[in-house]
Write a structure and sequence with these properties.
Blueprint lengths: L9 H5 L2 H12 L8 E4 L1 H8 L3 H13 L4 E2 L2 E2 L8 E5 L1
Parallel strand pairs: 1-4
Antiparallel strand pairs: 2-3, 3-4
């Protein structure tokens, strides 16, 4: 379940609509398990979000460089207690 402060978090407030959609997808996609560990490809993300692979790559780079929410295949939401680990091929 998402924390109801998701939309008020400083990171989300600064995001573009496309980035918000991507971030929300990371928490709600069918590949995540109850402890936040899942494996997914960029191709699958692109298909699920109806984005190009290039768009997914650019958004992920922004999450790494600007928001610091993805680091070496690890997503760290500041408001979430546990870590979400992402294996992206």
């Amino acid at each position: 379940m998402l924390n109801n402060d998701f939309w008020r978090s400083p990171e989300v407030i600064r995001m573009t609509p496309q980035e918000k959609y991507f971030y929300l997808y990371l928490f709600t996609n069918p590949y995540i398990n109850h402890i936040g560990i899942y494996q997914i490809s960029k191709k699958q993300i692109a298909f699920d979000l109806d984005h190009s692979l290039e768009t997914v790559h650019l958004i992920m780079e922004r999450f790494i460089e600007h928001y610091k929410l993805i680091r070496k295949r690890q997503i760290i939401p500041t408001w979430f207690v546990a870590f979400l680990y992402v294996i992206i091929s």
